[in-house]
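Q: I'm writing up a methods section and want to include an example of the input and output format. Could you take the sequence below and give the corresponding predicted C-alpha cells, formatted cleanly so I can copy it straight into the document?
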Amino acid sequence: MKFGLTFSLQVPPGSGVSWQQPYRDMLECLPRAEDLGYSSSFQVSHHAQKDGLCPGPLIACAGAAAVTRTMRIGTGVLLVPLYAPLKLAEDIAVLDNLAGGRFIFGVAPGYVAAEFEAHGIPRDERVQRFEEALDLMTTAWTEDTFSFDGKFYKVPETRMTPKPVQSPHPPFWYGVSAKASLRRAARRHAVQIMSPRHGPEELQEHFAVYEAEANKIGWNITERPIMRTVFVAETKARAEEIAAPALNYLFTELYGAASAAGERVLRAADGSIITDKTQVSFDTFKNRYIIGDPQFAIEQLRIYEKAVKPTEVVCWMHLPGISGADAMRSVELFAREVMPHFA
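A: Here is the clean output for your methods example:
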C-alpha cells in the first residue's frame, strides 16, 4: 500500500491566517514528505468558496512539481465543466512536461450550484459537458492535427503542442460516486479515487458497481486509491484536540451544506441523510476519518485494507485551520510509526 498527501489550501474565516500561508506550508512539506516515502500529492479544488479552497489546482500542482522529484502530482479533483477544454488540455500538457510525466488528471463533473452559477455554466449540463470535454482533450493529446464537433464544444482543424510526456496521455482518475458515473469511469478505463465523504461500507458499494462494469467490458482495474482525512499525534486525545475543529468545519461547511442544499447526499454513520448542516459534528462521521495515535491509525487502515483493498491511501492532513507545523508533525509521525506496517 502506498501513501500520498492531499492539500486543499483553505483558510477558515476568522482564523487570522494569511491566504498565502497554506501554500507555503505545502511547499515546505512536500520535499520532506517525499524523503519520508510519500508517493503522491493531490490538490482538492472548488470555486466561489469563502475560505479560499483552491480554485487553481493546476497552478498549485505546478508548484508541487517544482519542489519534488519522484512524487506523482495530481488534481483530486478538477471540475472539468468549468473550464474551456482545449485550453485545459494545453495547460495539462505543459504541466506534464514540467513534472516529467508525473501528472495524474483527477476529474469530476462537480455538484455545487454556486460554482456553476459563478462561471455561467448550466448545472444540469455538467455531466454531458464533462464527458464531451474529456473526449475533446483526449483527441487533442493524441492526434497531430484534429477537429472536434460536439454538442457543447466545437474546434476547427488545428493542432495542439506540446504533447504530454505520458503516452497516450496523463491518466484519468474519476472522483465520482453516482452509479452511472462509476460505470462511465470504468468504460473510460479511468481509475476511481474514492472520496473522504464516504465510510467503508459506502466505499464497498461504490467499488462493487465500478468493478462490475470493468468486468463486463473486460478491463482490469489498475489502481484502487482512496482519499481519507487523517491526523495522528502521540495520543488520541491530542489528535482529536487538534483535528476535531477542522473536521467539524470541513463536514459542516462543505459536505454538510451541499447535502442540506440537495446538491450531493451526505450520510451519517447510521445511514441517515444530512438535511441540515447543524446535524454535523465530529462524532457524526467518526467511521470515515482516521484521527488518533499511530496504533489507532494502523487499526483503521486495516479495516480499509480488508474492506476495499486500496493500493494507495491519499491522506488529507493539512486540514482547514490546522497549522503547517502541526500538520507536518502528523506527516512525520505517520511516516515513522504507521507506514512501515503496510510496506
